[in-house]
């Protein structure tokens, strides 16, 4: 992916090798009223990339075209890969993290396993300087995995708070 941004194939290799991997195992019990309950509220992942395995359909993403929620089809044994906020920051918005949520159903318990890959706890992810110039202002503030954890301790994503929104620079701060 860094190669596709013109940054070369090894741009993040050292930092990713020293990076963090978080495994989130989500269990959504059967729900008698799935229309009235949500498994996991809408969010984008803080990571660079997330790799997800789901036991049955239930992952939904917003379609950037019409903004509506769309179910992600589940093909037995396949993995979904999401772009996270930190890749959006690195790419100065050329890659966009995806808003997604986990839904419940009345028939069976659903399990999903998400593997979130990021830089190390205190390593700041900022926009690649190579992607900033007179025509392309730097749109994001830098942040670390720890910054995300601090955000999570102080904010409720169930109330619609988003980490990414804290990373967007004010227009007059852009360089
Ligand atoms: O259950 C799902 O499909 C989504 C899980 C998820 O978004 C997460 O763990 O960050
Ligand atoms: Fe997620």
List the helices and strands and how they pair.
Elements: H1 13-17, E1 20-28, E2 40-43, E3 49-54, E4 59-62, E5 69-71, E6 80-83, H2 85-90, E7 100-102, E8 110-118, H3 145-154, H4 163-167
Antiparallel strand pairs: 1-8, 2-7, 3-6, 3-8, 4-5, 4-7
The chain binds 2-oxoglutaric acid and fe (ii) ion.
The site of fe (ii) ion has 4 residues, from loops.
Shape: globular
Count of spatially separate domains: 1
CATH architecture: Sandwich
Through-space gap between termini: 25 Å
Mean pLDDT across residues: 94
What hetero molecules are in the model? 2-oxoglutaric acid, fe (ii) ion
Estimate the strand proportion. Answer: 15-25%
Largest sheet strand order: 1-8-3-6
Give the total of beta strands: 8
Domain Fe2OG dioxygenase: 19-119
InterPro entries: IPNS-like_FE2OG_OXY (IPR044861), IPNS-like_sf (IPR027443), Oxoglu/Fe-dep_dioxygenase_dom (IPR005123), Plant_2OG-oxidoreductases (IPR050295)
Keywords: Iron, Metal-binding, Vitamin C
Organism: Hevea brasiliensis
Quick summary:
Helices cover 15% and strands 24% of the residues. With 175 residues, it is an alpha+beta fold. The longest helix has 10 residues, at 145-154.
Question: Could you walk me through the main structural features you see in this protein, from its secondary elements to its overall organization?
Answer:
The structure is a single chain. Helix content is 15%, strand content 24%. The longest helix is centred in the last third of the chain and has 10 residues, at 145-154. A hairpin with a 6-residue loop joins β4 (59-62) and β5 (69-71). It contains four helices and eight strands; from the N terminus they run αββββββαββαα. It has helices spanning 13-17, 85-90, 145-154, 163-167; strands at 20-28, 40-43, 49-54, 59-62, 69-71, 80-83, 100-102, 110-118. The protein starts with 12 loop residues before the first helix and ends in an 8-residue tail after the last helix. The radius of gyration is 17 Å and the shape is globular. The model has no long low-confidence stretch (mean pLDDT 94). The strands form two sheets. The protein has a four-stranded antiparallel sheet with strand order 1-8-3-6. Strands 2-7-4-5 form a four-stranded antiparallel sheet, with no helix packed on it. With 175 residues, it is α+β, with helices and mostly antiparallel strands. The chain has a single domain (13-173), classed as Jelly Rolls (Sandwich), CATH 2.60.120. The site of fe (ii) ion has 4 residues, from loops.
